[in-house]
Amino acid sequence: MTLIEVLVAFVVLSVTMAAILQIFSGGMRNARLADSYSRAVFLAESKLAAAGIERPLVPGEEVGQITDMQWRLRVQPFDDDGAADRQLMPSRLYLIQAQIGWNEDGRPRQVVLESLRLGLRQ
């Protein structure tokens, strides 16, 4: 082997190693992002499940922060135009929205889940 062949082999090896490291770092970044989204969905589902259980459903908004994630729970009456005799029923539908936001890699990220829940008429 000549010196030129050895240098070419090192160049090919270094380019290949750089590409492999780039692939691995992208995979790690995607895994971290997927973990953050999983935590955000878990938190949003938890907030939705607690709505109407821990406190009665009252139209309004709550905000808070857990670790690096900010959450917002919004409750508002759901207007069902097709429902007949709404005034006769002691309950009504509420739209509950759980919004989770955080920053990752310098970019804002967000998860929003919504659900309808039956609660007492105000």
Describe the structure.
By secondary structure, the chain is an alpha+beta fold. It has a single domain (3-80, 87-120), classed as S-adenosyl-L-methionine-dependent methyltransferases (N-terminal domain of TfIIb, Single Sheet), CATH 2.20.25. The chain is 39% helix and 36% strand. The chain has 1 helix and 4 strands, in the order αββββ. It has one helix at 3-50; strands spanning 60-66, 69-77, 91-104, 107-120. The protein has a 4-stranded antiparallel beta sheet with strand order 1-2-3-4. Strand 1 (60-66) and strand 2 form a beta hairpin. The longest helix is centred in the first third of the chain and has 48 residues, at 3-50. The protein starts with a helix and ends with a strand.
Q: Per CATH, what is the topology?
A: N-terminal domain of TfIIb
Q: What is the terminal separation in angstroms?
A: 87 Å
Count of folded domains: 1
Which H/E pattern describes the elements? Answer: HEEEE
Helix fraction, binned, reads 25-40%
Q: Provide a count of the helices.
A: 1
Neighbour order of strands in the largest sheet: 1-2-3-4
Tell me the CATH superfamily: S-adenosyl-L-methionine-dependent methyltransferases
Average pLDDT reading: 89
Q: Can you summarize the main beta sheet? A: 4 strands, antiparallel
Q: Unreliable segments (pLDDT under 50, ≥5 consecutive)?
A: none
Briefly note the structural class of the backbone. alpha+beta
Provide the β-strand percentage band: 35-45%
